[in-house]
Amino acid sequence: MIKLLKALVILGLVSMLVGGGAGAYYFLVKQPRAQDDEENHRRGPAGQSTPDPTTADFEKVRDLRRNQQYAEAHNATEAFLTRYPESSHREEAETMLGELNVIDLLSNSPGPDKLEYIVQRGDVLDRVAHKTKCNQELLFQANGLERTMLRIGQRLRVPQVDISVEVHLKQRKVIVLNHGRFFKSYAIQNGKAPPKKFPDIHTKVQEKQAKKDGRQVAFGTKDYPGSVRSLTLAGQPAYTIFGADESPDKPAATTGIGLNVSDAEELHMLVSVGTPVTINAD
């Protein structure tokens, strides 16, 4: 009887050792190896990531842009972003869409968001801009004008925009919306993200400025081209969006949002005094 018990005990110990060894092998060797095999399969040969399946469609969109088929490229880019919201090409596609939106806005071609205005006696650019609710610089650029003087009977295309601006400090982006839809985004060059999250700041463009050699210059003057543009936003502290080559005099740089100079010029053209602006910590 004692021999039988000893045999059973030895058999149990052997089973435990074999079972424990098998469990240890599974958890320490087999399972990690299977996970590695799965990861390597996902990444593809030579440890490279699996190619983005949206690349082929994006190349078709980019070819339309390269061939200056702007209308087709615009529609195709919007469709791409709708169909592939998680594509690795999303940021590049949004950049392209922004460029195409500006090209369309500043073209002298007719469109559903453009009115035709015939210049009448006594009209000057500023007066037409006021009558059509379009800022005069945008009106000037959209018609490819070389001077602010108008002639009676001249036909002008007037963009009908409804611009708003979102400043995303953490993402370091300034996003322009037109009629509530994405229009274009600009990268923030200067300006620090806040140390902690704060509620959205809802403000508006209080003043548009242009400076050259430290002097304020007006649109339509010979010194306006090449001037550094800035936008002062209402509120305390008063944020300023400015061309990054020149810090604003006021307010302090800690509340300034610096853009590339050409981006600041374009944004300055798009917005008007009173344009709503939201500043977000995210």
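That was protein one. Protein two is written in the same sequence-then-structure order:
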Amino acid sequence: MAKNIAKNTICLWYDKDAEAAARFYAETFPDSAVSAVHHAPSDNPSGKKGDVLTVDFTVVGIPCLGLNGGPVFKHNEAFSFQIATDDQEETDRYWNAIVGNGGKESDCGWCKDRWGVSWQITPRALTDAMAAGGAEAKRAFDAMMKMQKIDVAAIEAARRG
């Protein structure tokens, strides 16, 4: 009988690198870990008996299951992890870890890891500015629209006007 299975778990489909992805997330983000690696009990459409089939892991406290399902499905921006950061140092650390490990920069604080999973590295300064509403939010939003990685000082300056 399975123990401590979360009622709701995010399942991420990988070609064959679920374990490598889970270990990268565990090394990169706090409150993240790989808790189990399960091997296929027999041959299947995406692999052979004994291959890693699923990986149980958490990303910043969120329970996830990595499934090595083969090349049929690819990740896209319809799903992303949004990581709130407290300052530029933390923003840079996560952004650089993802992009520097074979990932790709995108716009407005978004990037993709080397497995194609999308991440929003979002400083609290940006979410606070957006929550302020009105002209402050518009100025911060307009500044963000010109960025890839979010520049906290530029967001704060735009918010002030």
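The CA atoms of residues 104 and 112 lie 5 Å apart. Keep this in mind for the problem set.
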